[in-house]
Specification:
This protein is an all-alpha fold. 63% of the residues lie in helices and 3% in strands. The chain contains 7 helices and 2 strands; from the N terminus they run H-E-E-H-H-H-H-H-H. A hairpin with a 5-residue loop joins strand 1 and strand 2. The longest helix is centred in the middle third of the chain and has 46 residues. It is elongated and about 80 Å long.
């Protein structure tokens, strides 16, 4: 196998994207968030628990819900983008394989097989779509609570109750990510495809909220978490 082909296979592990391929550790919101005027505001992480500092009032709790919801959706989008790139490489590899078969170029056909099979292997091993769905579900749960609390400014709900619901979603996300098993690919199919091209080149191409506690709202927030 020539050096060009070996390099292509090795580079398949370098698909673009900031999100890690590995399910753990769980990606948490950045310590910096951008304000409406574009400036970055530092939010000190809680190094004992990870993620954002727990809220000390209901306004911070509502803000944290929005930050977590935005961040988890961003991580989900990055993982889906990796899946799209894998699909594009698979398609490009198939095209190259056909071109190689028509032109009777073994090198082109081999390159096509390597691209196509390698991209598929990467996608299957790291289960991009499974991970993306986990983050998306966590985002939906955070947004669900945010949209219920923001219009009423959290009236009738204690900030500690919201902190607990946030941590509950984070625990569920970690459990979901912990359940993702990296798949060891069956390289025999890749080997067989490459050998077929070589052997048959012509066949391949605690603060309380004011007033009475809103039990209905608290139940709705719990329902948001339960939906994950």
């Amino acid at each position: 196998m020539n050096s060009k082909l070996i390099s292509i296979i090795a580079l398949l592990s370098l698909l673009p994207g900031c999100a890690s391929y590995y399910p753990l550790p769980v990606e948490e919101p950045s310590a910096q968030v951008k304000t409406s005027d574009g400036t970055l505001v530092r939010r000190t992480p809680d190094y004992k628990r990870g993620g954002l500092m727990p809220a000390v009032n209901i306004d911070e709790a509502i803000e944290n819900l929005k930050i977590y919801g935005d961040a988890y959706q961003e991580y989900s989008d990055k993982l889906r983008r990796n899946e799209y790139i894998s699909n594009d490489l698979t398609f490009a590899g198939g095209v190259l394989g056909v071109i190689g078969g028509v032109s009777k170029s073994i090198e082109t056909a081999l390159t096509g097989v390597a691209l196509s099979s390698g991209a598929t292997i990467t996608s299957q091993r790291y289960q991009f779509l499974v991970q993306a769905t986990n983050y998306e579900n966590a985002s939906v749960a955070m947004y669900c609570m945010y949209t219920k609390l923001f219009p009423v400014r959290g009236e009738g709900v204690e900030y500690n109750f919201v902190n607990e619901r946030i941590d509950e979603v984070r625990r569920k996300l970690r459990k979901a990510q912990s359940s993702v098993q990296l798949i060891t690919p069956d390289l025999s199919k890749l080997k067989a495809s490459l050998l077929e091209v070589i052997e048959n080149p012509r066949r391949n191409g605690g603060e309380e909220a004011a007033g009475k506690p809103d039990l209905k709202m608290m139940a709705e927030l719990k329902a948001c978490v339960a939906s994950f």
